[in-house]
Amino acid sequence: MLKSKTFVKKTRSGGVMKIVREHYLRDDIWCGSEVCAECKQESAVLQRDACIESNLCTYPHYLIPDTNVVLHQIDVLEDPVIRNVIILQTVLQEVRHRSAPVYKRLKDIIHEKEKHFYTFTNEHHRDTFIEREPGESANDRNDRAIRVATKWYSQHLKTSESDAEGLKVVLLTNDQGNTQKAEESSLLVYKCEEYIKSLIANPELVDRLALSSDDKNEITSSKVLFPEHLPLSRIQAGIKSGSFLQGSFRASRDNYLEATVFVQGEGEDSTEVLIQGLQNLNRAVHQDVVAVQLLPRNQWVAPSAVVLQDEGTAKDDDAEEEEEEKLQYLNDLRVPVSASKPTGKIVGIIKRSWRPYCGMLNASQIKESTRHLFTPADRRIPRIRIETRQSSTLAGQRIMVAIDGWPKHSRYPNGHFVRSLGSAGEKDTEQEVLLLEHDVPHQDFSQAVLSFLPKMPWAITPEDMVKREDLRHLTVCSVDPPGCTDIDDALHCRELDNGNLEVGVHIADVSHFIRPGNAMDKEAANRGTTVYLCGKRIDMVPELLSSNLCSLRSNVERMAFSCIWEMNDKAEILKTRFTKSVINSKASLTYAEAQMRIDDTTMNDDITQSLRGLNKLAKILKRQRIEKGALTLSSLEVRFHIDSETHDPIDLQTKELMETNSMVEEFMLLANISVAQKIYDEFPDCAMLRKHPAPPPSNYDILLKAAKSKVSIHTDSAKALADSLDGAKVDGFPYFNTLLRILATRCMMQAVYFCSGMDSDFHHYGLASPIYTHFTSPIRRYADIIVHRLLAVAIAADSTYPDLMDKHKQSALANNLNYRHKMSQYAQRASVAFHTQLFFKSRGILNEAGYVLFVRKNAIIVLIPKFGLEGTVFFDTKDKAAPNLVFDEEGPTLKVEQHNFCIFDKVKVTISLDASNIQHQKIRMALIDPVIPGVSVPAPDVEPQAKKPKLDR
């Protein structure tokens, strides 16, 4: 049956266009129930015995939730107790339109067979489709469509020739109007909360209920603590007139009374607005999109340089007094007005960016109380007030909590319990927390994804060779860190008959196995990158590809994408070509093994000769890059030696870099630059490139202040900075140059992916290259897969597809890749921090030498080179009287009693683990040397602990 609707639309040019919309209706859509004999269905989803033990519904029943129940109670719907649910097409479409995260979670539930969730396409069924009536809102029409479908199901199951006797259909809605109309139509209808509270099998499920608008005031005081948020219409008018600014809210990690709002401008014309105080923060949560109003210039302040954590209070009445005390403390440490920044207040929320948060429960001190405070692991998120009857069970557990709302009467937002993650402090639990907190997709690959893997045993076929060059005869080898199984790249170097050198970079041809648009491709695009944690790897692609078929292991045939240059002995490129190939690596070496071959004069085999040729050219390439102004920066990376049985860290050391590290890096950089130029020449509008913006001059302030007393640093250009760093040496202080380069690294901007058709600035500041991309790691980076596809089309080795040539889709993809890359880095740092805590856990107190890296108003940040560890020495601790502190912003210096601390000062500190707060365990440092009476601590005897071979099991 075909229904058509005709209407006219005015075009931009003033003409009239007739539009006909056709809607196909069918009468053969299955109901999905096992009990139904009327519908011809092979594999029914809804069970015959649909029993959920309930005091309200003592009979078998199916559930039909409306849109708002799905949107707000998705945590409840995910519980295993909830089964045999009908998701109407009307609801699915509305959820998709209103919340992408909830839509994805709902689709995942529908795909779980044991949940028995059935999608019924009511909008295309002849008996359940309804037209929108004149004057009826879209929302009211959808509510009516849900009631019509519920009524059809009730009658359909009754009239069906089956044993459906007693089986009923229950509509779940929290909408009073919808409930009333459903009852008038004799439908069985309950509020979601009413139904969930009736369940006998799982009373804890009540804790997972999100608060509805009717009960949000139950756990607030009557006193108004925050200004009212302006309605969206006023906000939009204010943004248009320029009286309000729209931006992303970024809470401070170190000071809960402070945040910034990042306002995106045209090009580099972006601003940051400082927000201070609970009233001005006005219930915004980290990453919300907010409307901010600038305060008068005489009320502008400077960011605080003190660390201020929310101690938390259960009494809302104390909020104002608490804030006044803390702000007085901030004002006591205030810097001159000349250092002030644009300051404002939040007047409204444009878009909430809430997600489920990991953390721990702070149980109420009131006996039998069900209301408790939850402390998130992320210090930028405020505490959340929840109701739970499981407080004794959840003590010491990491749990997840979602925010439901933040009334103006409440000091903290209200939320609900989602699930428990396990005991705090356990490695598996903490790893799950850091993956969830950094939004790293880490679930097992679905069957849909795995179905696109090649069947084993796998071998290269004659068809595969048609567009490939056979390079199996070349002496190719790979050089990687120890234990590497996902080998992306291999190299070769040989002398040609004309005396020139042929150098090849061979990269795993992942794009041969991952084809555009299939489930594996979509999953890889979403994950964006492989995440390397201490002792664990979260793969971007399934292991069969990452560690086997794509990995360029030695002595097996593998498909590759090769970039081959002809060079002279001055490393000048004479010819460049790209080809899909087949290689057979002759050796999989570690950096140390490759270095040993190069250095051992008795070895002269083909592999060693190739490595020596590569190493010689790499040194010339590096010198040329540095002459052009490329930066050689520094950051301390640590490597843990993990116990093979307990998986605990037993040793911690900074990574040593060898010539072979640099050798591999130079040829990877050269390949990336060569490929970037090629794909941009061929596809100027849709090339996936990578840029590194030049830092704004203000970023260098800390570097210039730190260096001024010892050396002169110029930051006019990358070349000027590179030359300054190369010449920055202090007699008797060999580590000074490394410290300076570490500080320079902190001044840099983040490198980002972008689409060439959407940007005009391609320059890579750090590499001093006019164009750059990522081509050399497609096993672990999705950007490289896109670059491979572009290059394959450019050399006619593969065909294109629409999304590849769509600059808007490429730009959106680049944004996701930038986000995933950033979160991956944060997750890796968090993993290192956790393993560092494990390492120090049973070692008592250690003494180590370090250097002052930053100076704060009440503390110094100290770097311990031996462990690549940073820690804070506080001088205003609660357990002893605060010393006399004088902070000089210009230095920056901190005078503690009679001693002046400057950046790069050498100090000696104690290092220990403070586990008093199980959720926020931290490395504590205390000053030993210089000796400041009343401040420094005596050096402990650490010998017995230092000899301890490994952690307690």
TrEMBL record:
The keyword Cytoplasm applies. PANTHER family: EXOSOME COMPLEX EXONUCLEASE RRP44, RIBONUCLEASE. GO terms for molecular function: 3'-5'-RNA exonuclease activity; endonuclease activity; RNA binding. Belongs to the RNR ribonuclease family. Its cofactor is Mn(2+); Mg(2+). It holds the Pfam family Rrp44_CSD1. SMART domains: PINc (SM00670), RNB (SM00955). It is found in: Cytoplasm; Nucleus, Nucleolus; Nucleus, Nucleoplasm. GO terms for biological process: CUT catabolic process; nuclear mRNA surveillance of mRNA 3'-end processing; rRNA catabolic process; rRNA processing. Keywords: Acetylation, Cytoplasm, Endonuclease, Exonuclease, Exosome, Hydrolase, Magnesium, Manganese, Nuclease, Nucleus, Phosphoprotein, RNA-binding, rRNA processing. Residues 61-180 form the PIN domain. This is Exosome complex exonuclease RRP44. Component of the RNA exosome complex; within the complex interacts with EXOSC4, EXOSC7 and EXOSC9 of the exosome core complex (Exo-9). The catalytically inactive RNA exosome core complex (Exo-9) associates with the catalytic subunit EXOSC10/RRP6. Exo-9 may associate with DIS3 to form the nucleolar exosome complex, or DIS3L to form the cytoplasmic exosome complex. Exo-9 is formed by a hexameric base ring consisting of the heterodimers EXOSC4-EXOSC9, EXOSC5-EXOSC8 and EXOSC6-EXOSC7, and a cap ring consisting of EXOSC1, EXOSC2 and EXOSC3; DIS3 associates with the base ring of Exo-9. Residues 468-797 form the RNB domain.
